[in-house]
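Subgroup meeting minutes
Present: P.N., E.W., G.H.
Scribe: E.W.

1. P.N. recapped why we're keeping a running log of single-chain structure predictions: easier to compare across weeks, and new members can see raw inputs and outputs side by side.
2. G.H. added today's entry (63 aa).
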Amino acid sequence: MNVYLNNKQAAEFLGVTEGTLAVWRTTRRYAIPYVKVGSLIRYKKADLEQWLEQRTVREVEND
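Output recorded in log:
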């Protein structure tokens, strides 16, 4: 089952402000998928989790 978050919930999940999330969306700074229905914006929680995973920096060992 898909869980959709509103702007406030998505911002809290990511640890940013609603304003920051809105700026990222409108300027396309980050390609975070979202659904727009009329003036409503919704984020699929699984998409946010995947976006965070893609941004995870992992330690690289030098040989």
